[in-house]
Amino acid sequence: MQTLTRLIGLGWLVALSIVSGIMLGVWIDGELGSSPLFMLIGLALGIGVAALGAYRALSSFLNR
Amino acid sequence: MSRPVILVVLIGIIVSILGGAIGNAFGLGFLGSPIAHIQLPAEPVFPKPFIDTGSGLIGDITITNTMVASWITIVILAAVTFTVNRKIREVPGRIQGLAEVTFEFLLGLARNIAGDNARRFFPLAMTIFLFILVNNWIGILPGFGTIGWVESPEKVVHHAEVKAEKDHGHVNLDTVHLQVFEGTGPIVLLPPGSIDNHMKVSQGYYLTDDGGLKDVPEGQYLDDHGHLKDIPEGQYLDDHGHLKDIPEGENKENWYGYERKVSKETPNLLIKSQTPGLLIPYLRSANSDLNTPLALALVAMVMIHWWAFSTLGVFGHLGKFINFKQGPIMFVVGILEIIGELARIVSFTFRLFGNIFAGEMLLIVMAFLLPVIGIIPFLGMELFVGFMQATVFAVLTLLFGSMAVASHDEH
Q1: B338/A contact by beta carbon, under 8 A
Q2: d(Cα B184, Cα B35) in Å, to the nearest integer?
Q3: Which of B21, B234, B242, B281 is within CB 3.0–4.6 Å of B148 for a Cys-Cys bond?
Q4: Total-model pTM
Q5: Measured on CA atoms in the order B236, B240, B242, B246, is the torsion positive or negative?
Q6: For residue B410, pLDDT beyond 50
Q7: Taking CA atoms, what residue in B is nearest to A56?
Q8: What sign has the CA pseudo-torsion B30, B31, B34, B40?
Q9: What residue in B sits closest to A45 (Cα-Cα)?
Q10: Which residues in chain B have their CB less than 8 angstroms from residue A56's CB?
């Protein structure tokens, strides 16, 4: 039950981490005027964090 | 099934379909329910704000119909609790039996999920379960969304203009729809009859230069540029506002112009005793307002973290989120946990809100398409969805709580 709980928030976690990465990048771009450099960096970071989160959530099933 | 039962069911379905919008399309609709005005934010119960702060930051404090519905829920729950608690017997009566069944259902779930912590988490989970369940179930009672006060067309257009200004757009009167009522008062029912009782603001009304809204005077009409003009001799306006010739032999007195024509063939038109406006219901299912699920989610998450802090200590719990000791990977994992906590609040909120709001829309549409009989299965489904969402919210609170109090090393 506890391991299954980790999967519940997974969809929102992926969405939120990518969106928050992009928004952070857009904000830095707006401050520095370096569009679209930091937006792409934020996107890459967000996807990376999302992938890590998904791996962590699924690892308990993968190792079996 | 025996033959008479099949016959009754068949007749019911046919009447239901013929009486609804499908029948309406062929000119046979006689049971069609009114199209309620679908609006996302909760509507105020009183025309004026309760407290007028006059500040743009906070905004006005209004009593909304979803607030009233949740107050009714609180009163119901308090009354039932009081009645059950006053006379507890060995052999339970009907109300006590219901209360016991409800408690045992969730207490069993709590023991399965939270184990030793079940007794500690149970009060909050049970409160959330009962509050959401009663809110969802009273939300589909008759009277919710159909009894209210009528907002005048001027106010409706004003709101549309304020919204258009916010979106930096221009207000298009053709998109502003009104309902038609037989007289107005403090208590008005949504008028029966389906699409007949709708009109657009641009029919029969025009905007003055200072942004007001006025009746088009008798014998005049609005041309394509929005200017008032006299209706020429021997012509009249049809439903869509086009000039047409009055048929030969008809008395001119019967053809007032499109907003005053009294006739069965043109039901869209206003007659003298009718008032246009928009129904603002006094009651609406509390969870169809985003604020109620958000408040519940915040209460649940704050309590979950309170439990975690009191079990693991301040540093024990914070160490899950801000972690410098075990290298950079664990630091990123800590950030991940923070995003995960935020994601939980969002998913708590939108799961409940989405299900209940979608259910309300489904009932409105089905009441319009398949009135009287076709809607019954969907009412049953809404009962089930309301129960499921209450259970899911309570169970997830228990699950997240038991995950939060588990110490860091265990997983």
Answers
A1: no
A2: 18
A3: B281
A4: 0.78
A5: negative
A6: no
A7: B333
A8: negative
A9: B332
A10: 333, 336
